[in-house]
Every structure is written in structure tokens, then in C-alpha cells.
């Protein structure tokens, strides 16, 4: 009878331990989403060349990262259904044509305007996104650019994606993709570099000096927006979610 | 009836494929404002193919550079993934170093994120920053075996500004870092691609806050002859076909300049290529495209992007507004 009792208790302890390990593993698991404009082959390659580095789970600092979504872009991915797409991931990598504030999902340049989008990473509203990377021309508009407005990025009653999001990065000039940037960026991220630093370093390491057509210095100049408290955030560890009232920084290359 | 419909569909598909395959307007959309001259090919025949020396980088190289760049850093915490060794300060992710064992390329940061604040910094002048960058490269023994190959390419800067939503205060624009870029020239001909470059980031007070060394020493060059080169017609056809494939939706692609360069894709060779600049007009947008095509009939390595992998295409899904969000709590 005693041995049966001990056996039952041992089983219970084992189950509890297993559950605890599973819970901890889940607590540390993070998702990456890739989103591709339906326009050119290079957009497919750009996103794949980043997310392919996370086909299997990679432990980075205290988190385990794996790519979870790889979808063609539609406006609802960033707007109405954001909680099922970009905002149920922890990092989103997007590749498309763009202009200041906007992205082209397919045949319209202003398919998605971040000034009209919901707050991303807004935990009370089930938002999850921490890091947003947009490899496109001009989308991540920076302070000196015409039409820049802090309240376009900061979430207010009318829109703006920074209401929990930690860092957004891309280009504030024209840019050219289909090069080493996604892979260099993945290398830095996997090494647990600060994410926005990884982006700037990847762009700078791709830079070349032939020509400067239409004001573009190959491959374009990087930019990032982030609340001050998130400037050290990386895939391995990041601070608690910022709010829309946190001090905001615009960082850019010239 | 069903069979008739199926036959009609099949005929339509064949016709559409034939018509689409002909693409009558394709060549008219791609306009060569610049021409590939015989002079370019004559000059190309003076170039060489250089074999690059294999990387000798190993774990001891990493340890030695980590000590050199970070002093008493705990190198035992370095992680290795896919031939990349990296180390990152647990307290500050902008203290970071990464070495690619296959290529020997090194990247590092020393407090890059610390530079971003709202205080007036003190960056050196451009000339002073170049001197500091060169002194750092020399002291670190990062300069190439033939220092004449490394030339100053550009001085860039990273700037910032801030906004306090609680007060509405907008901070001043701050110059936070200078980036000094060096490229490679072989007998005056520039090398493009992912290799043959170095950069140094200079921060507040002239300190070195980051950099990258993407440089492989080369062996003796092998001369090429004009017969090894592709013809003007072949080059034109190749560029037309590539641009049609890659930027197929564009209304107009105007090739405005050709430049004879070398190409280092981070592999085993530096080879001559024909670079070109194009103005692309597509759906109301105009943007620049910088491309390159192999000059040699038998290039030692691929020039330009790899084709899309089958795995990528098979994994890519159509999104649907019906997709439900996950029920778990966000993390």
C-alpha cells in the first residue's frame, strides 16, 4: 500500500515538474513573422533570407526564437486582423515598396499607412509585437524628413503604432534590397546584439559607393524609432512594454 | 460538356502562356540610355581575376581580438551558430563582437546604444575622425597587407532627436556618431560587393564605438583576355533578361550608366563585372536600381542574387482576414 502511495506521489511530482518545464519553455518562446509584398521576387528573397535563420528554435539570451508566420502582405495583416498576424508575433520582418509612413502590399503605394494603424504590442488589447523591421524605401520616416510628426508614430486616438512596440526600423531614404542585409541582420540578432544597432550595422556593412541616382546612396540610409527605455532591447532580453507617453527617439543615418 | 470546358480552359492557358511568353512590350520598357561601348570591353581586358586567400580565423583569433577590443571580457561566454562566433555583454547588448570563421569577417560595437541621448556630444571633425579611424585600424593590425588598396570612401553620420509626449518638448538634433568607410581599389578600379570594405564608427570624444572588417587578402591576379569576355550583345541580353525577371511590373527601366568594377561577394574570388545604374518607374514610383552582371564568359563565382529557393516559395502562404488570433497570452 505504502509503495503504491509513494509511486502515486512520485508520478504527481514528475507531472508537476514536466508542466513547470513546459510552462517555462512557453514563457521563453518568441515568434518571428515574415511578410512579403506581392510585387517582385526580391521581396520574397529578402524576407526568406532573414526568417530562414530561425527555421529551428534558436536560444538567444533568455528567449527561444522561431519563425512562425510567412505570408503575402495584405492591408488587414497590419490593420483589422493585426492580432492574428504581425501583432501575434514578437518580431515582424516586412519587405515591400514604400514611401514616407506607408507600405505597398501589392499594387497601391499607400496600402498601409502607419499613422492610421492600431497600436502594436499593446498588451491589454492582446498585442504582442516588440520589434518591427520594414525593408522598403522611405517608410520609417525620420525627424528631418518632410512631413515627419511625432504623433504619427506615437499612438493617439487617430492611430500610430507606438503604444507598446519597442523598436521599429527600416530606411528613411530610397533603398535597394536583394543584398546581404537580411543575413547580416540575422547574424547580429542571433548573437544577441541590440536589434536597432544590428539593423544599422547590417545596412552600413552593405554600403557601397557606386553612383547615387535619385538621391539614394546604396543601399539607402537606415532609420529607427524607439522609446528611450527600449534603446538597449535585444532578442535575448527586453524591458517591459513602453507606453505612448514614454520619451521617443528618432535615430537616422545621413 | 465538362470535357469541352476543360479543353477550352487548357487552350486558353496555352494561348495566354504563348502570348505572355512573347512579352512584345518587354524590350521597349527597358531602355538603354547608356551604351556598353567597345572601350569598356577593351579596358575590361586589362583587368584580372584574383583568388582570395582562405580564412585562417579560428577560435584563438576570436579570443585574441575580443581581448584586444574589450580588455578583460569573459570570452568563455561566446556562442557559436553556423560558423559565427559572437559575444555580447549581458549588461549592454551594444558591447558586441562577431567573427565569421568562414570569411574571417569581424564586426563589433562598443557602446553604440550609449551614444543615443539628448545631451550635446562632442564629435571630432571629419578630418580628425578619419585620422582616429586610421590610427585604430593600424593599432589593431586590421589594415590590409597592401595599404594602398584601402581608400577612404565616405564619411557618414548617425543623428538623433527626441520627443517628450508629456511636455511636448522636442529635443535638438544631435550628431551622435561618425562612420568612416574605406573601400578597396585594385589599380584604381573600385571593388563592389559584400567584401573588400572596412568601417569604423567614432562616437563622443573621438572614441571608437564600432566597426567592421570585411576584407580578405588576395593572391596574385590572373590576367584575362578579350576573348574571355562576353560580347556587347550577350551583356545587353543578360541585363534585359535579369531586369525583366526581377522588376517585371515596372513600366519603364532606363539604364543610365555603366561602370567597370571588380566584384567581391565574400567568396573565393574578386572578378571583373559590369555594374549599371537604372531608373525604375513602377506604379507611380521612381527609384534607383544598382545592378551588376558578369563580364567573363565563365565567371569563377555567381554574380548577383541567388534564385528564390523552392522552400521559400513552398512556405509562403496567402494571408486571409479569417485567420483567428492565437488564444494564448501575449509575451
List the helices and strands and how they pair.
The complex is a heterodimer of chains A (254) and B (331).
Chain A: H1 2-28, E1 29-36, H2 41-51, E2 58-60, E3 63-72, H3 75-78, E4 91-95, E5 97-99, E6 102-104, E7 112-113, E8 131-135, H4 150-153, E9 167-171, H5 181-190, H6 195-206, E10 222-227, E11 248-253
Parallel strand pairs in A: 1-3, 1-4, 4-8, 8-9
Antiparallel strand pairs in A: 2-3, 5-6, 6-7, 9-10, 10-11
Chain B: H1 2-22, H2 26-29, E1 30-32, H3 38-44, E2 48-52, H4 59-70, E3 79-81, E4 84-89, E5 92-100, E6 106-110, H5 126-139, E7 150-164, E8 169-170, E9 174-186, E10 189-192, E11 197-202, E12 208-214, E13 218-223, H6 232-246, E14 252-263, E15 269-282, E16 285-294, H7 310-315
Parallel strand pairs in B: 1-14, 10-14
Antiparallel strand pairs in B: 2-13, 2-15, 3-4, 4-5, 5-6, 6-12, 7-8, 7-9, 9-10, 9-11, 11-12, 14-15, 15-16
Structural class of chain B: alpha+beta
List the secondary-structure elements of chain A in sequence, H or E.
Answer: HEHEEHEEEEEHEHHEE
Biggest β-sheet: strands ordered side by side in the sheet of chain A = 2-3-1-4-8-9-10-11
Radius of gyration of chain B: 26 Å
How many separate domains of chain B? Answer: 3
Helix content of chain A: 25-40%
Shape of chain B: globular
Q: Average the pLDDT over all residues of chain A and give the rounded result.
A: 90
Beta-strand residue percentage of chain B: 35-45%
Shape field of chain A: globular
* Through-space gap between termini of chain A: 78 Å
- The radius of gyration of chain A is 20 Å
Task: Please outline the major beta sheet of chain A.
Answer: 8 strands, mixed
Work out the number of β strands of chain B.
16
- Number of E-state strands of chain A: 11
User: If classified by CATH, what would the architecture of chain A be?
Assistant: 3-Layer(aba) Sandwich
- The helix-and-strand class of chain A reads alpha/beta
**Distance separating the two termini of chain B:** 56 Å
Count of individual helical segments of chain B: 7
Amino acid at each position: 500500500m505504502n509503495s503504491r502511495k509513494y509511486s502515486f506521489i512520485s508520478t504527481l511530482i514528475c507531472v508537476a515538474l514536466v508542466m513547470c518545464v513546459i510552462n517555462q519553455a512557453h514563457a521563453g518562446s518568441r515568434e518571428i513573422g515574415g511578410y512579403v509584398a506581392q510585387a517582385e521576387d526580391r521581396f520574397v528573397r529578402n524576407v526568406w533570407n532573414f526568417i530562414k535563420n530561425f527555421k529551428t528554435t534558436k536560444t538567444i539570451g533568455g528567449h527561444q526564437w522561431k519563425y512562425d508566420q510567412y505570408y503575402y502582405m495584405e492591408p488587414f495583416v497590419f490593420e483589422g486582423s493585426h492580432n492574428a498576424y504581425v501583432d501575434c508575433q514578437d518580431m515582424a520582418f516586412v519587405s515591400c515598396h514604400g514611401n514616407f509612413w506607408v507600405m505597398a502590399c501589392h499594387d497601391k503605394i499607400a496600402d498601409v499607412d502607419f499613422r492610421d494603424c492600431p497600436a502594436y504590442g499593446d498588451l491589454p488589447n492582446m498585442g504582442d509585437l516588440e520589434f518591427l523591421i520594414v525593408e522598403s524605401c522611405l517608410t520609417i520616416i525620420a525627424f528631418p524628413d518632410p512631413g515627419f510628426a511625432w504623433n504619427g508614430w506615437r499612438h493617439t486616438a487617430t492611430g500610430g503604432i507606438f503604444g507598446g512596440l519597442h523598436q521599429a526600423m527600416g530606411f528613411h531614404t530610397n533603398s535597394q534590397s536583394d543584398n546581404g542585409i537580411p543575413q547580416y541582420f540575422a547574424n547580429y540578432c542571433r548573437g544577441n546584439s541590440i536589434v536597432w544597432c544590428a539593423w544599422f550595422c547590417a545596412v552600413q556593412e552593405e554600403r557601397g559607393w557606386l553612383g547615387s541616382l535619385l538621391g539614394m546612396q546604396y543601399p539607402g540610409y537606415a532609420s529607427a524609432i524607439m522609446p528611450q527605455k527600449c534603446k538597449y532591447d535585444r532578442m535575448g532580453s527586453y524591458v517591459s512594454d513602453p507606453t505612448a507617453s514614454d520619451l521617443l527617439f528618432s535615430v537616422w543615418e545621413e | 460538356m465538362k470535357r469541352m470546358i476543360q479543353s477550352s480552359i487548357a487552350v486558353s492557358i496555352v494561348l495566354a502562356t504563348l502570348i505572355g511568353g512573347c512579352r512584345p512590350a518587354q524590350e521597349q520598357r527597358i531602355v538603354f540610355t547608356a551604351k556598353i561601348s567597345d572601350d569598356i570591353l577593351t579596358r575590361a581586358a586589362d583587368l584580372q581575376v584574383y583568388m582570395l586567400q582562405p580564412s585562417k580565423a579560428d577560435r584563438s583569433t576570436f579570443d585574441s581580438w575580443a581581448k584586444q577590443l574589450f580588455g578583460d571580457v569573459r570570452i568563455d561566454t561566446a556562442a557559436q551558430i553556423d560558423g559565427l562566433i559572437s559575444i555580447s555583454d549581458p549588461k549592454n547588448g551594444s558591447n558586441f563582437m562577431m567573427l565569421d570563421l568562414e570569411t574571417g569577417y569581424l564586426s563589433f560595437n562598443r557602446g553604440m546604444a550609449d551614444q543615443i541621448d539628448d545631451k550635446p556630444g562632442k564629435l571630432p571633425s571629419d578630418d580628425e575622425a578619419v585620422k582616429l579611424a586610421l590610427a585604430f585600424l593600424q593599432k589593431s593590425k586590421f589594415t590590409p597587407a597592401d595599404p594602398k588598396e584601402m581608400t577612404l570612401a565616405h564619411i557618414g553620420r548617425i543623428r538623433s532627436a527626441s520627443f517628450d509626449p508629456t511636455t511636448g518638448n522636442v529635443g535638438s538634433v544631435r550628431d551622435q556618431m561618425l562612420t568612416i568607410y574605406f573601400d578597396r581599389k585594385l589599380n584604381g578600379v573600385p571593388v563592389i560587393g559584400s567584401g573588400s570594405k572596412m568601417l569604423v564608427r567614432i562616437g563622443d570624444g573621438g572614441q571608437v564605438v564600432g566597426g567592421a572588417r570585411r576584407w580578405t587578402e588576395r593572391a596574385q591576379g590572373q590576367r584575362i583576355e578579350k576573348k574571355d569576355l562576353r560580347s556587347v550583345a550577350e551583356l545587353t541580353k543578360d541585363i534585359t533578361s535579369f531586369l525583366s525577371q526581377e522588376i517585371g511590373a515596372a513600366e519603364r527601366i532606363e539604364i543610365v550608366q555603366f561602370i567597370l568594377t571588380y566584384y567581391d561577394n565574400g567568396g573565393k574570388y574578386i572578378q571583373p563585372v559590369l555594374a549599371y545604374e537604372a531608373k525604375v518607374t513602377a506604379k507611380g514610383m521612381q527609384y534607383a536600381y544598382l545592378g551588376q552582371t558578369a563580364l567573363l564568359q565563365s565567371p569563377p563565382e555567381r554574380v548577383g542574387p541567388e534564385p528564390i529557393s523552392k522552400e521559400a516559395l513552398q512556405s509562403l502562404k496567402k494571408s486571409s482576414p479569417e485567420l483567428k488570433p492565437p488564444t494564448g497570452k501575449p509575451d
